[in-house]
Design brief:
The complex is a heterodimer of chains A (about 750) and B (about 280). Chain A is of the alpha+beta class. Chain A has three domains: about 10-125 and about 190-265, Aldehyde Oxidoreductase, domain 3; about 275-440 and about 590-749, Aldehyde Oxidoreductase, domain 4; about 445-585, Aldehyde oxidase/xanthine dehydrogenase, molybdopterin binding domain (Aldehyde Oxidoreductase, domain 4). Chain A is built from 18 helices and 32 strands. In chain A, a hairpin with a 5-residue loop joins strand 16 and strand 17. Chain B contains twelve helices and 15 strands. Chain B folds into three domains: about 5-50, Uridine Diphospho-n-acetylenolpyruvylglucosamine Reductase, domain 2 (2-Layer Sandwich); about 60-170, 2-Layer Sandwich (Uridine Diphospho-n-acetylenolpyruvylglucosamine Reductase, domain 3), CATH 3.30.465; about 175-280, CO dehydrogenase flavoprotein, C-terminal domain (Enolase-like, domain 1, 2-Layer Sandwich). The termini of chain B are far apart. Chain B is globular. Chain B is about 35% helix and about 25% strand. Chain B has about 280 residues and is of the alpha+beta class. In chain B, strand 4 and strand 5 form a beta hairpin. The chains are: A alpha+beta (about 750), B alpha+beta (about 280). The interface of A and B includes residues 618, 679 and 738 of A.
Chain lengths: ~750, ~280
Amino acid sequence: MAIGKSIPMLDSVARVTGTVPYASNLKLPDMLVGKVFRSNVPHARITKLDVSAAEQVPGVVAIVTATDFSGEGPPNLHFGSTYQDQPIVAADRIRFIGEPVALIAAESTAIAEQAIDLIELEYEELPAVFDAEEATQPGAPQLHGAFPNNVLRHSKLRHGDIEAGFAAAVKIIEEVFNSPAAQQVSLETQVAVAQWKDNKLTVWTGSQSPYTVRRVLAAIFDLDLEDVRVIVPPLGGGFGAKGNIRTQPLAAALAWKVGDRPVKLVLTRAEEFFTVTKHAAKIVMKSGVRRDGTFTARKITIFWNGGAYASSSAHLVPAGMLRAIGPYRIPAVRVDSYGIYTNLPIAGAYRGAMSSQGVFAHESHMDTIAHQLGIDPLTIRKKNLLHTDDTFATGEQLHDIHFVRCLESAADGLGWHEPFQRENGTAKKRGRGVAIMMKNTIANSSSECRITLDAAGRVTLFISTVEMGQGGHTAMAQIAAEALGIPVEAVSVQGPDTAKTPPDTQTASSRNTQMMGNAVLDGAASLRRQLAEAAAPIIEWLPEELSVADGYVFVTSQPQERIVYAEVLRRNNITALTANGKFSTNVGKLDSETGQGISTPDWHQGAGACEVEVDTQTGKVTVLRYHSSSFAGLVINPMLAGLQNDGNVIFGLGASLLEEIAIDAGQITNPNLSDYMIPSFLDIPVELKNVSLEAEGSSFHGIGEMTLPPVAPAIANAVYDAVGVRIRDLPLTAEKVLRTIEEQNDHAR
Amino acid sequence: MSFDFLQPDSLSGALEALAAYGDEAKVLAGGTAVVLMLQQRLIAPAALINIERVPDLNYINLKPEGMHIGPLTKLRDIERSTAIQEHCPLLSQTCGEVANVRIRNQATLGGNLAEADYASDPPTTLLALEAQVTTTSVRGTRCLALQDFHIGFFTTTLEPDELITDIFIPACPLESRMTYLKYKSRSSEDRPCTGVAALAAFDGKTCTELRLAVGAACEVPQRLPNIENMAKGQTLNDELVGEIAAGYAESIETLEDIRGSAWYRTQMIRTHVQRVLEDVRNGHR
């Protein structure tokens, strides 16, 4: 049995010994270095761009500016996976600090940097806007003519009678929550290597979406899809930052201008911060409750700061609307989710896209409600949690719902009901908190695979699943091994190469295990049928009388009558059998005016419970114990699932306590890992445990992101429990906590 | 970015190179600071003088009058030196608190002092230890008390042609207890938000000498002798500890950065001076 086994990642030794062939390490013959000349003002009209001196630097091979796109026909200046609003390089207008203005291909980094210093840019500054809500106000600077008031997308949800709901409430509670911009901080930065040959483009890149990259590049250069080949080696981390189009058009445009030599563009750490961030979000949450702690209504208004171009915001704003509601029975819900253009770097998916912000809001809010009503935070949640067959705010009936088990297993792990030492006579106080999340995944998506079996009995799985450290290839190999009855060692995985591996929507939104996993099952079933048909004439039984399992084709009624797979191929003189597998979901879409409909094929469910210590003289929060849980349905690899759950929690500590992109008048002032602080191994809670929940008869669910969004509210709730202060703005820095404690003390005096 | 890269293999060679380039040169020792500054284009020197090959600058010499430490000594070696652990545990403790092992294996004590980064641990402790810095140039040699060496925000009195050639730490008073308290407001591997070094000598319960240095919260590490003297001849009871902590918090002009505002720094000085004094009172070595 390959499913349910804790085996290490297939490439774990390579990862530890530094031999993974990351795109960042790729070297091609005659390869040039790409560099980007970026804007240093947030909003301006370009009056002059002179690259002539830079072009004269020996070793500079090509410089791309907007004039390269001004002729008839391709390439097109603007691109985008949903809206084509983003220029490869700024043409007449600069919309954020760090926006690419010119691209340089040179023999070396030093030469390219020398050339950058010689580029002359003149501009007239325009008024800029950085706050999302301000950007919607009358008189605010406008970024894109087609989007009045800078609203790039407004998603609405209207469920039940909201006025009647609030009228029926005995208590109405309204709070405002803020999450700042943060960076995904993959260890490997964004990279693309582009090469043109015979009017065909090949790109090696660190991307979670190889087929989206292919589609967008084909549109830019007006090529047939088949004339763009996208190859994705394993990634050194993705976390959503690599889920959309980033560096690929820049590298492709440079290589196009160069002509016959490949160009490699690797971003520096600082450039990562200018390229994509987590959405800063302001969430206003208002709930009506009855005295018993049940809900009558909830109204939510969200401003997502999308930055200067739409990118993935165009499809994430509606997802963020759903992910802010919470997994509770609420008869009337109204949500307005606004994606807003501002003069800041582009915001995109951040591990559990748009979930962390909303879950921080609804789970902090839930504790405020609990405290105001005098109900235990765990009790009030369990009283309201959604169950299978309940109706969600979208009007859809829920299936495979395990919120109560999720929350209980995290809380039980912590020992929620057991007494603990809250103080020991020092300045340090302890407290506990819980939080839970629900998340839809991509409603309509598709995964395909190809499986080959050769005459040596080896199986190769061709998938566009991106291996970014999560163990996606390992999980798929285990599923294939299980379905074909062979050891996992007999399975090789060929990762994304659009010339070799069939399409997959993307490796994102925790969808790979479920979607590609089912495609692999489908492909394996087809391969088993082919084996039975090929074996039938040899052992002289009908295909339908045969079974395929454990490495043999055998007669179902007489299992000793059997033949090994490889022998089936050899006896038929077949070099290889090939099977295709596919799994797609097409659940429909939500009504654009009411948000009613079916939003997802299945629900992501996760929870967390923690104990923290707050130093009341410094405000510093230390997470001592953390227990997480996620609903996995059927666990494929317990070790990797556990690491994923724990990894989420560690990742979440950063955004909860430390991480915030500091911005001064549109300029990021901490674009390095000395000033922008991520957690170190020493910050990991001493007790860090997780549970991956299974259910009888359930198939595999994604678990990539479930335990992350509850981290911030679980900690904020524990801080409240410890010292009685409610922090509504992330991160919970020591200074913020101390200030709030002091304000409360002043208030009490 | 281009610069001359020099690798002198003698002290005189290094000093001559420094004399030739003057303030156009930067000295490269461990590289943990200079290389970052180069990468971030904060500096653009005409020459980089790598002194790694200069002999006799990497040593720890214990003498009756104190400890001599060579400027090229790695922080990790100071942390692990049994001589320093025995005779000046405050210094090994402090060096062991800097960043992480990877940095400490590379960073040198001389480089740390020459950089004069306020957000650092060793300078605060060296001020409490009354360290002296010897500098050498083709013009001769000078010996400076640390407070005359670090004079401002990233500013030293090191002349462009001078190299630090020795760091001397006078022998600690007998029966003294000492500790360094590093407060990190962010991750466990962050630089200090506030650092407090204390050295206190006792006769029974009576404090006979107190040295208390505060760094990272202000432009240069500071001692306040008037306030230190309040402890002389006294027992360090809670009330006195509170007064000393308040005195330091109120007297030091704090700075603001990503690790905390000036207000927060003042609070952290109060809290950590108090905690460090409680530590030495209760018997830290």
